[in-house]
Amino acid sequence: MATVVTLPRLSDTMEEGVIAKWRIKVGDKVKRGQVIADIETDKATMEFESFDAGTVLKLVAPEGEALPVGAPIAVFGQPGENPDAAGAPAPKAEDKPAPKAEPAPAKAASKPEAKPEATAEVEAAQTAAAESAVPESDDDDEPGPKATSQGTGPQGQADRGRIPASPVARRLAREHDLELGQIQGSGPRGRVVKADVEQAIAKGPQARSAAAASGAAGPVPTASQAAGSPAADVDEHGRPYISRPDRTVKLSQMRKTIAKRMGQAKREIPHIYLTMPIVMDRAVALRAEFNLSVDGTKASLNDLVILAAARALRKHPRVNAYYTDNGIVERGDVHVGVAVALDDGLIVPPVRFADQKTLKQVSIDVRDLGTRAKEKTLKPEELTGSTFTVSNLGMFGIEEFCAIVNPGEAAILAVGAVQDEAVVEDGQIVARKRMRVTLCSDHRVFDGAESAKYLQTLRKLLENPLSLLT
Amino acid sequence: MPILQIRQAIRDAMKEEMERDERVFLMGEEVGYYNGAYKCSEGLLDHFGAKRVIDTPITETGFAGIGIGAAMCGLRPIVEFMTFNFSAVAFDQILNNAAKLRHMTHGQFGVPMVFRGPNAAAHMLGSTHSQAFEHFYAHIPGLKVVAVATPYDAKGLLKTAIRDENPVLFLESELMYSVKGEVPEEEYLIPFGQADIKRPGDHVTVITWGQGVPVALKAAELAAAEDVSCEVIDLRSLRPMDEAAIIASVKKTNRAVIVYHGWPNGGVGGDIIARIQELAFDDLDAPVLRVCYEDLPMPYAENLENLILPSPERALAAIRRVTYKR
Amino acid sequence: MTQSEAAPDAASDSTVDAAYEAKLRADYDGQSREDVLRDYREMLRIRRFEEAAARAYTRGKISGFLHLYIGQEAIAIATQQVMEPGDRVVSTYRTHGFAIALGSDPKACAAELFGKAAGLVGGVGGSMHFFDKERGLWGGYAIVGNHIPVAAGHAFASQYTGDGRVTLCFMGDGAVGIGPVHEGMTMAGIMKLPIVFVVENNQYSMGTPLKRTLPVEDITARAAGYGFASDRFHVTSVQETRRRLGEAVERARKDGKPTLVELITYRFRGHSMSDPAKYRQKEEVERWRLNDPLERTLMALKTIYQVPEAELDAMDETIVAEMDGAYEFADKAPVPAPEARFENVMAEGPYYGDSATTRPAGVE
């Protein structure tokens, strides 16, 4: 019976091959193990040793043509046998069962054995990929994409971005029906941690989520829905207002630092604010005199304030201090930070050893610091180390204001504008130049009385400014 | 109860098992006439003779392989590496033969044997002699990996290892051979896969093993002075690992620090973190931190070595971080 | 010894000339017809098994690496004949020949190649990891040379327990440079273990001829350094190989002295199925073919023992049918059950991974 010789797979990765050269021709008698062809595989050209013996009835595959593994390439048999009989789709039932019923060549040619399996594998892989692409439903988290695309219900949490919280804090909040966004985080970068949630639980219902509060009243309208209500959207003539999208400005490093430090200060420091009016006529006169007689610099009123604040600190070391759990640290040196406003933020470079400096030196220092702050050429070490801060918004016409204590200090002096005021002195109304300063301080470090005493000292220095020249 | 050093507990475990079972023998460099490089086999040659306490040439691959071949024939070898650093020479034997033969032969053969010796950094031995091998071996299915830190654990676990039907890597510590502790006179075995709480606590779970245990305990003491209470879990066996003990403790404390010898990348520490985040994600209040070697080769110079090694101070810093008390 | 010298001193023509026949008669002097027929049949079984493996590989039924033993069959047959019950063969990734020679079921061998549950090792090993402990086949090692210390360990166990067994440890010429061989042999020499190390020198370390891998081409020159006896010869017949391997086995069993035997042989196929073996000349292969123990035995049967061609053909047909049957069995045999992957990892029973985080879905 004729045997169909198929293109062998000669390497584990071979999918097709080329008969580079036939070593036999029709009519040759082939022995088992005889080289019958050179076959180019994906790796090499290899000699193909026949597994079959017999007479070559037909060479099916031409030289040089790429064929899939398993494609019929030749037919062997007895001399005179019909080669095409071997390729009949249904091999004739003969005396013995056809050993391993070779696949019908026609079928094999069009659909080589290896292919369907490979295709099946690809399909399986695609299915697997598709399955794994669907996130497992996990109701314990607030996955960003799911929340925004599908909406997680009435909380509208998605609008507010992801709130940093530890997993256990999330779980506790969920279990106690608290909204994470209502809880102040005490962890790094404001992360809500377990202790914060426990505190909120102890505090009671005010932190309960809006969803729970509104209960059956239905979904709370989102911000965009509210804006979309007809009443809000048109003017009295029925013309729509021009709506512009919100703009998110990326946080600069300075903004981030300010946010972090001011946030920390407002959270941690119990502030106390005392305001003192100071008559500045003599100080103004002294400054004018000074600027006329001293070369090399021009002093500002603020320079006088800085110098006076520094000298007063020497008398009140508790104001030149900071708080720790282990004790209050009274600073040995006086470095007065001067708040300098920049385009997007502010920095506070210190006038070092300000209490020991002359007015001239202070004014030189302040000018230099201010100029270089705006040029951004201050060195990092020139930006740190202040023990007390003076912030002056008087040039903007601000009468008085409350500032936030810089972490690591106990107080900041908020300085308002010098204004002509009608003042009653000894029963007489007189015109005076007056300035209001507010000492904003950390109540953990000292109390109101100490603050008041410091302000008295400061007032005495500024109202009798000659002492500042000594 | 008698007080023994770890080295004596190890010797007693081997001695008792060799007396119990004639198939057990000890093989390695200097185990016989020299009485062991660290005196863990002191007196065994005199007691059992050269047939069962076998000095080998310096051929880690050779005698590791002989142990494997003998175990396949039904013997119960204990192969001592003078240090586990030298087991790298025999790594192929452990990886491809000891760990795989039961599987590869479809259960026709087993490899019941123990590879033991000191592991991890000792003191100023330089980069080639200061490495922790549990991270390599715990990666391999087919092996068991044990690390001991007390005489009690050493004896109970070594006896279990010798009786186990699988290849067991038994990791000791050169610096801890003299550590003393109570060891009962009566026989006892400690099963694998059971962690031991070396110090109970509520605020932070400190997971450790082997040479990390004294570091973790010291750090827990320092933390206690700051009112932070640490639960120190000595895993004792790394494969199998007592996952349940870790998870139960983390669910209580919500915080974990892992203290161990070895590099950070691709090691057991990272594996433990993977388990915690998968099994106790909703119970975490802080990221889980590792205190281990810096990701660097070990220098000889003492000051540099001290910078790289995990210390109680570094562990304390990690404990502060996970409790948000920086 | 150079390549050309290594080739057999035979005529360049495949017809049997007078010198060839004289040598053949000398080699088969004293051999009974039955013994020679048996040796031929056993060798032919290996060859036909291997040819069927090659064929199945070309049809995509076998994957991975497939290293054939064609040309080296006489070694496995002679080894089987010198073994006593309980003796062990530890071999390499080219190990089908030993399995067939030692009596492993060709069905189980074929099923192993097909990755089927009925395989010699349940389909987890494949061609390179054959083990059949019951029949003395102790591996099946696919990391070159790493079984030498293990085989020494088996011999050590024999010495420790006094069971009187001998371990025969086989390796290729390409293995002798690797470290574990040196360490294992050093230990065997020091401990005086009952072991025979056999290097099957088939001339090529994969594709590199031995003159480029061996500083001294006589591998047995190393025996002195280990305190071994040694022997070295061309494998041209089963009976000669049997006689000389037998001496080495006896030495191991009686005197506890290891022997290093170098058998000079040839594989007619490439290193593995994907190797076209272009690194050697056609003429070289043809010269070796005349030295092929199987061919020489066939020639002896025809010329010396006058066995009728029809009898030999019938024997061949029977063997081909047996091997075809084995592969047919393997083809139809079921693949391992999914749970099979949990078996035999740990001694305690099914093992699903150490962690709840790494266990397969659905497993507690």
Describe this structure in words.
The complex is a heterotrimer of chains A (470), B (326) and C (364). Chain A is an alpha+beta fold. In chain A, 31% of the residues lie in helices and 22% in strands. In chain A, the strands form 5 sheets. Chain A has a 6-stranded mixed beta sheet. In chain A, strands 1-8-6-3 form a 4-stranded antiparallel beta sheet. In chain A, strands 5-4-2-7 form a 4-stranded antiparallel beta sheet, with no helix packed on it. The N and C termini of chain B lie far apart (43 Å). Chain B folds into 2 domains: 3-182, Thiamin diphosphate (ThDP)-binding fold, Pyr/PP domains (Rossmann fold), CATH 3.40.50; 196-322, Rossmann fold, CATH 3.40.50. In chain B, helix 3 (60-72) runs parallel beside helix 4 (91-98) and helix 8 packs across helix 12. Chain B is of the alpha/beta class and 326 residues long. Chain C is of the alpha/beta class and 364 residues long. Chain C has one domain (18-335): Thiamin diphosphate (ThDP)-binding fold, Pyr/PP domains (Rossmann fold, 3-Layer(aba) Sandwich), CATH 3.40.50.970. Chain C contains 13 helices and 8 strands. Chain C has helices spanning 3-6, 18-27, 33-58, 73-82, 96-102, 106-113, 148-161, 179-191, 223-226, 238-255, 282-291, 293-303, 309-332, and strands at residues 88-91, 137-140, 167-172, 195-201, 204-205, 208-209, 229-234, 259-264. The longest helix of chain C is centred in the first third of the chain and has 26 residues, at 33-58. At the A-B interface, helix 5 of A face loops of B.
